[in-house]
Batch of 3 targets.
Target 1
Amino acid sequence: MRIKILLTFFFLFGTFLTNSQVLTGHYGPGLFGLRSSHGFPMNWSYVNVSHIYYAGEMKDNNGNISTLAEPVNVIANISGGIWGTKLDKLGANYNAALILPFTNLAPNPETLELDPERIGLGDIKAIPLMLTWNFNRIALNTRYAFWAPTGSFDAGAKDNRGKGFWSHNFGIGATAYFDKAKTWHLSWMNTFEVNGKQKTTNITAPSTWVAEWGVGKTFEEAFNLGLIGYNTRQISDQKGGDVPEDWNNYAINAVGMEVNYRTKSNWVFITRWYLEYLGVNRPEGTVIRFIFLKNF
């Protein structure tokens, strides 16, 4: 069993395809967990995310299981910068972020082969707008983000670092607190992704809807523990490409746990584990994420 190491931004969801599967966008489910609408810190922050994924089986359009010829084993890592300030006139916190992914392995969609010989820039992600409103018992969050096709792409090539198209996503969500001390909380984040046309293939990936949720408990204002999950659905058809009509409907669900801790020196350490289930037209596996954030 080989381990395939990648340094990229959550390319996994929508990377491993066969000729009869739908092309998917950039957004990876599970980006938000506990207190997802609480927003990012003010001033400058550095974030680093490691992503581990394993899948040994594939689900078809009826949810039937087929074993992959070779299990999918992926480790991914990204780093980025976040900036935040208060907008007094709106009563909101504003954040913006830039993610610069570099990858030393790239997926070949038709064969699942990877090329480990070079390091290159992947598709850059930018979040130019995130607004958060924190009230007594609820936090509201909305955002816009996009991926630019900065990574190299050539249809069928083994050394691709990007996906060859723009993606735009729009998010809105809320976190509700059940006590005055805000120790018990329930979060729900909705993300809608719209994709552009892929260069050289003229394929337009379908739009998707992702719902991410979390319910948990805060201890001593620094330690959080709870249940998390996500639900992803294709909400439009792919345009172009050789995809049977009844295969134009991918979906995946997951449930898991999150533990996070904030230190007095403004370090945040987050661990998330997900087990995927009820997949349709995509691999189904296990996800682990380690997130480190430093606020300056």
Note: Confidence is low (pLDDT under 50) at residues 1-19, 104-114.
Target 2
Amino acid sequence: MTQATRAGIDVGYWVSHCEGFRVRSGNRRLGFVQEVLEGGQTLAVRGGFLGRRVTLVPIDRVLAIVPRERRLWVSSSPTIRVPRAVTPLLTDDLSPPAHLERKRRERIAA
């Protein structure tokens, strides 16, 4: 993250407020930051076909962040994939898994 520090931006602030930023690893597009977890220590990155895959990326894997472009780059080191059973817990109300979970809860409550 030395490039971002040299640019004069507050890296700690932007990493903890990077929800919605596009995430890349070299030339590969990984997805976007769905949520900042564990007090700003981990990023939940949603990607894959139809945005069904959630990957947890530790903050120390962030190489650079460009707030103006809403992008960040991470190292290509292995990250943690979240099992699909947990994925709806990390989603907003617009995603298909969250929508299905909300419908299931409504049926149970009725």
Note: The chain has three helices and seven strands.
Target 3
Amino acid sequence: MKPCDRDDWQEMIAKKKRFLFRMVAVFICFYFTLPVGVILFPSFMAHRVLSHFTVAWLVAFLQFVMVWAMGMIYYFKTVTFDRLIEKIVARAHRTRRIVK
């Protein structure tokens, strides 16, 4: 039996897919707020919020922050996925149900 045939492996892959889907969905939604906002709500995006900064500039800057934050979240989450994979493989080796 290969590790990819195990139920715990399939469960871990499903968790990883759910996590990645959420990350991509949040990224795409936030990414398109700037172009869609400028096209559909130009007066709102031109509104000044911090002395010389407009809402559009604020959203553009927040996209950089979002990319860094999502990168850190992804990094720390993959560390937990790596630990899960190590446990699954170790358990498979203990039960001798792994094919090299």
Note: The mean pLDDT is 87.
